[in-house]
Amino acid sequence: MASSQLAGEMIRGAIEAARARGYMVFVGETAGDAHLERDLLDAMFDRQVDGVVLATMMTYARAIPVEATRMPTELLNIEPTDDADYVRVLPDEVAAGAAAARLLVDTGHRRIHLIGVGDDPANAHPFGLAAAQRLRGALAVFAETGQQIVSARPTVQWLPPEGFRLVSEVLDSGAEVDALLCFNDRLAMGAYQALQERGVRVPDDVSVLSFDDTSFARWLRPGLTTFAFPQRALGRAAADELIDLIERDAAADGSSPPPVARLVPLPLRMRASVADRA
What is the pTM of this model? Predict the structure, then answer.
């Protein structure tokens, strides 16, 4: 987990928050291996750790291993598929999708195309929950404002070649377009390339809005306006929530508050890829 920049930032945030409250952080990496995950949970339990944050890189719905029930456990980027109650820390993807749609509508965009997803949250993406949640938030705002989506183009791979292909299809279709809502920055990178190849200017002709604020977003020309995935803030929130849970359990009087879902906002990084057409 620590091998990627995204995981590294989450871990750094957790370490900062834990250190501030007098705790240490031990990190175990499973690479998605369920057997290794159970082994690591057993090892943590044998070493009498105070609690565990069970985390994934992307937001998933998944079953929680029974080994996690033996100690205070909190979920980061995970929605449990069973009936077990856990404290959960999640990115507020629904709010980010809504804010993205609101930004485009408020800046006068009326010919909007979705890049990376279709128009049904139930089938938004076979992996993870971010696609469905972002789409659900965006569609709610479009419905509220009476905004019609011109097209919604799904793909399984949220990578630059797919962004290039999908935006090329939009341009080849002859449909009017003044904004592309790309569902991650890699799709937006491909969108930039497709637009540039056709001589379409960003944002003068077409605005591009995205999610994640990956490292290259600020270096695209023009800089990409995007909602940042809050890696470090998620790590900090996860550590704080787990420590609260540990200390609550230590002082328990037989009752405890119900588990909560703490939503961490995705901040907007406003750069130069969205024009004001209002």
Answer: 0.91
